[in-house]
């Protein structure tokens, strides 16, 4: 069983993805987006339904199945059918007045627009989740490479020290100290791999990938695009957010819907008409009676006062919600913009060549330590400083990407 699991793990495929490819896959495969698109189509079906006229109503009644001595003789209704029998039927058609049908269609069309903006809001949130996970996975993968590089160096030193220990050139405590450092680095690699597995699980759900697939994100220079982007005025960002944010558009649609609902509810005060035509045989002084008529409610008590009041309150509530949404958006844009500027300022303090210099210095220090030109304590102090600085640089780039995506999210479009 254990062997089979090991074979299965070796059979897994590695999928190397650039960020743009991952987003294309996400838009094509994500099940939540597919489901929400179906909700839009369902809402469009409500518009189709609202456009349909009410069906006419047909009734057949007053048929006597037997006759007695009081039946007055009458000729057959059709052929030999209906002699000395009574029969009546009626056709009625409901006519909606005050443009209720058009007003209902207008309401349903606003609901379609609301469903579309809800889809955009879902897409906006899932995009942020996808991009942050991609950035996080790339950060973890790069950090694993840093630790693996240190692990390879320590492993070579451990093997060399084992030979020197056998020859009695070094003390056993030095060898154990080196092995302890190697074990600690490998433990960090294991924890990072666990973290990578958790991030990959989220990405596979978003991209609808096979669970056995291993994702590897191609490094496209994290933070580079953000650093090179020209500055944008804060006022421009506020305007772009008002134009692009789905939740603000949704709030506008709620207000529009409330106004249209008030118009529709006021139209309910006017009663609908029901036109009818009926035929009655043997039911009156005439053998074959054909009549027409019209019926309507008399709006003495119910003039839809409650529905109108409810719609008026909905308008006020929609206005308040729109103001609150706009205030929240402006605060969110300002905070994310400020956070991005702070993250960029910190990243700009990192010299472009500093990371290369660190890697070169690690090689030199490892060589000096192998040649016994520096002590173990000095080497480990430098290694820890090297590791901390590498993490700071990677975290700074990751933070810039996260802050940039948060700003995109708060504006509602990619800058």
TrEMBL record:
Q: Which InterPro entries match?
A: MdtP/NodT-like (IPR010131)
> Keywords, A to Z?
Coiled coil
Organism in which the protein naturally occurs: Sphingobacterium alimentarium
Q: What's one GO MF term for it?
A: efflux transmembrane transporter activity
Task: Tell me the protein's name.
Answer: Cobalt-zinc-cadmium efflux system outer membrane protein
Q: Which residues form a coiled coil?
A: 140-200
Q: Which domain of life is it from?
A: Bacteria
